[in-house]
Amino acid sequence: MLKPTRLIERPEMWLAGFAFYGDPFQLRGGWDEENEIGRLWQRFGRFCAEQPGSLPSALEPGTGYEVHIQHLETGERGEYEVFVGFQVEPEAGIPIQFSLKRLPPAQYAVFTLRGAEISADWDAQISAWLAEAGWVSDFGFNLQCYDARFKGMQDLADSEVDVWVPVRRSGE
Questions:
Q1: Which residues pair with 69 in a beta bridge?
Q2: Which domains, ranges and CATH numbers included, belong to the chain?
Q3: What's the average pLDDT block by block, 10 residues per block, for the chain (172 residues)?
Q4: Cα–Cα–Cα angle for 148, 149, 151, nearest 5°?
Q5: Are 81 and 69 in contact (CB under 8 A)?
Q6: Residues 119, 21: contact at Cβ < 8 Å?
């Protein structure tokens, strides 16, 4: 079972980027550059490369985030929102093609995935740890942090990714 590497407190975060809503695995399953998540990252990367003068300053250059957001339909249809982007100041001017997401202040359980763990079904393992340790997921989202430790899809074996899950004690 996966266990968190640490618990952290974070103030609100503002992310600028692109979003997708639906079943991201409808075309291709798992970790694949051709499923909707992979295509979203490609579209985001292409825009950033082609329009660098229109981008706001990243608060953490070289770090990207992927947010999985549950909606009311998620349990019924398996559809949810995926947002990819980078952290910005809330008043940053963003291009019209971008969306802006505000993540609330939260305590996060941080799970560091290495190698094959990155493409495994870690959601179930994280849920099991939360239940066993007396925590519940808060706010209905999780956040994946891609920094210099992520070497790309072609080199997952040597990569690390942090998954941040907003948590609170059960019963609070």
A1: 81, 141
A2: 6-169 (3.20.80.10)
A3: 93 97 65 74 96 95 95 80 96 93 97 88 90 93 96 88 95 80
A4: 85
A5: yes
A6: no
